[in-house]
Amino acid sequence: MSIRRAVALGSGSYLPERILTNAELSRTVDTTDEWIQTRTGIRQRHIAADGEFTSDLATAAARQALEMAGLDIGALDLIVVATATPDQTFPSTATRVQHNLGMTQGFAFDVQAVCSGFVYALSVAAQYIETGKITNALVIGAETFSRILDWTDRTTCVLFGDGAGAVVLQGRDGEGTKDDRGILSTELRSDGAHNALLYVDGGPSSTGTAGLLRMRGKEVFRHAVSNLAAIGDEALKSAGATSDDVDWVVPHQANHRIIEATARKVGIPMEQVILTVSEHGNTSAASIPLALDQGVRDGRITPGNLLLLEAMGGGFTWGAAALRW
Ligand code: ACO
Fold it and tell me: pLDDT tens digit string along 52-84?
């Protein structure tokens, strides 16, 4: 049976120039390189420059993805930006990216699901493509978490970084089997009962300020592994695949220990997991497309590979996608 698939044509990414190492951080907060590496796997993170906004990071990643896809900006129907750190409360960061790219047709909007944002955005874009409503979409994850960190709180400020990643999707006909190229399944979940474990203590409607990130890391950790493993299994099942079919896991990069424990539960060896957490830290919605682009550009991910993307973040929100590159 012929069905419409959202096929990935290209990826791109961008990291701000400035690198902040653990050693540098240990001079401003009571921490050590050893503690950060042992507990999280993080060695360094990138920090956006003054005047460099989420939309700038997103635009740079988008340009790379469009170039790899060989797609003209005039052919694009939709831009979805996943971000929890927009340039402004409104308008959306996506409309700024649209303008930066010189795109005057179609439509653009943001999706907010914190660290799960890219999987949510991918799912939204895929629905538009699979129904035949549109043909070409640009899906971006972009964040400047450095702007919402309490740089005096060692339990959170060592964990996050800035960056952006992007993927171009195009509607193409498939056979309706797990061998098709494109997004084979997406599974999304949320549970608002856990707001107090991971949140920002401000917002336009509550305090009138942007607020700063607060997290009870241990509790988040406990939920993360079981939620991620379960949703990964569900996405594979919906795609008609099993863990044996997976070539690469491209996980949200929050913590090396979470990634390892989840991979073990899903039954996929660490050699098949794309890891960037040591170099980037947790870049929230940007982390999956950043890792994906790294895997594509260094030649590990090749056309026809089955990828399992999975993420969990504030809300809680969590989700997974099976994508044949
Ligand atoms: N340097 C040194 N010591 C520290 C630091 C630090 N940077 N941070 C905390 N500590 C101390 C704590 O104060 C505590 O000390 P105590 O025992 O004297 O009280 C000790 O280290 C242990 O702290 P824990 O919080 O128990 O450490 P844990 O092993 O749980 O690691 C971490 C903390 C890394 C935050 C982990 O819990 C984690 O990764 N959680 C999940 C994060 C996550 O996945 N978030 C979801 C996505 S984020 C998003 O959606 C925006």
Answer: 999 999 999 999 999 999 999 999 999 999 999
222 alpha carbon – ligand 1 mean position (Å): 12
Do the Cβ atoms of 111 and 82 come closer than 8 Å?
yes
Residue ranges making up the domain that contains 294: 182-324
SS (H, E, C) 238-298: HCCCCHHHCCEEEECCCCHHHHHHHHHHHCCCHHHECCCHHHHCECHHHHHHHHHHHHHHC
Q: Which of 174, 204, 239 is the last residue of a domain?
A: 174
Residue identifier of the C-alpha nearest atom 15 of ligand 1? 155
Query: Is the pLDDT reported for residue 1 higher than 80?
Result: no
The domain tally of the chain equals 2
Question: DSSP strand E in 133-221: where?
Answer: 136-144, 162-174, 182-190, 198-200, 213-215
HSE (side-chain half, CA atoms, 13 Å) at 169: 34
Query: Are 211 and 295 found together in one domain?
Result: yes
Ligand 1 neighbour 115 (Cβ under 6 A):
yes
Atom 41 in ligand 1: residue holding the nearest Cα: 221
What the block records as the tokens of 121 is: 């955005």
Q: Give CA separation, 128 vs 1, 79, 109, 135, 138, in Å.
A: 20, 11, 13, 8, 12
Report, as residue numbers or ranges, the catalytic residues: 115, 252, 282
User: Is this prediction's pTM over 0.90?
Assistant: yes
**Cβ-contact 227, 258 below 8 angstroms:** no
**Each residue of 284-315: pLDDT tens digit?**
999 999 999 999 999 999 999 999 999 999 99
Q: Is the dihedral of CA 134, 69, 46, 261 positive or negative?
A: positive
**pLDDT computed for residue 313 by the predictor:** 97
